[in-house]
Amino acid sequence: MSTDSRFDLSGKVALVTGGSRGLGREMALAFADHGADVIIASRKLENCEQVADEVRTKGRRALAVAYHAASWSGAEQLAAAAYDAFGRVDVLVNNAGMSPLYPSLDAVTEDLYDKVLGVNLKGPFRLTSIVGTKMAAGDGGSVINVSSIASLKPAATEAPYGAAKAGLNSLTVSFAQAFAPKVRVNCIVPGAFLTDISKAWDMPTFEKNARATIALQRGGRPDEIIGAALYLASDASSYMTGALLRLDGGAW
Question: For the chain, which domains are there?
Answer without folding.
Answer: 3-247 (3.40.50.720)
